[in-house]
């Protein structure tokens, strides 16, 4: 059954709204996947905070116009499922990578991050991006390291003096 104009408008508005708040997007070919496999993808994606939708390419082009994902326009050909990472940039990569390992028919064709279009082969790099909490903890570790080194260096001087005095005392007692 063909979509009515109102349904098409709703789809474009929904995808555009998601694209405005998304951090990254993946476009993958789903030809040959079963309904059960697509349902499994949607369930995994929902758990990870990823929006997944099969959209006609013409509607997707309209929805993505004026967003960071407008760079995907030229690559929107063939049957594609679009996935948008809502929580962090790497979430969509992790979901797509794990699903692609299980289902060979699922072929990632394009990735968009920060207004740049990347090839599907860059998926592992996107999947390895840290989550927000991991990035904050890494930043804190980097910020803490110089202070910790300074404290241990300052603490080393009195410790070294105490060890030297202890060695001198032991030498006098032995003599």
Automatic annotation (TrEMBL):
One of its GO terms (biological process) is translation. Keywords: Ribonucleoprotein, Ribosomal protein, RNA-binding, rRNA-binding. GO terms for molecular function: large ribosomal subunit rRNA binding; structural constituent of ribosome. One of its GO terms (cellular component) is large ribosomal subunit. It comes from the Bacteria. Gene3D superfamilies: 3.30.70.1730, 6.10.250.2350. Signal peptide: none annotated. Belongs to the universal ribosomal protein uL10 family. HAMAP family: Ribosomal_uL10. Part of the ribosomal stalk of the 50S ribosomal subunit. The N-terminus interacts with L11 and the large rRNA to form the base of the stalk. The C-terminus forms an elongated spine to which L12 dimers bind in a sequential fashion forming a multimeric L10(L12)X complex. Forms part of the ribosomal stalk, playing a central role in the interaction of the ribosome with GTP-bound translation factors. This is Large ribosomal subunit protein uL10. It comes from Lamprobacter modestohalophilus. The lineage of its organism: Bacteria, Pseudomonadati, Pseudomonadota, Gammaproteobacteria, Chromatiales.
């Amino acid at each position: 059954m063909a979509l009515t104009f109102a349904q098409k408008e709703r789809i474009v508005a929904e995808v555009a709204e998601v694209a405005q708040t998304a951090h990254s997007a993946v476009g993958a070919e789903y030809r040959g996947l079963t309904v059960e496999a697509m349902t499994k993808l949607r369930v995994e994606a929902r758990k990870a905070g990823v929006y997944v939708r099969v959209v006609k390419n013409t509607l997707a082009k309209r929805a993505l116009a004026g967003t960071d994902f407008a760079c995907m326009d030229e690559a929107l050909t063939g049957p594609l499922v679009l996935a948008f990472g809502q929580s962090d940039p790497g979430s969509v990569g992790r979901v797509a990578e794990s699903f692609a390992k299980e289902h060979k028919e699922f072929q990632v064709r394009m990735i968009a991050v920060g207004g740049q279009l990347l090839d599907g082969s860059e998926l592992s790099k996107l999947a390895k991006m840290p989550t927000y909490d991991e990035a904050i903890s890494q930043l804190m570790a980097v910020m803490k390291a110089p202070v910790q080194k300074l404290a241990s260096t300052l603490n080393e001087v009195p410790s070294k003096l105490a060890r030297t005095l202890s060695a001198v005392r032991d030498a006098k007692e032995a003599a």
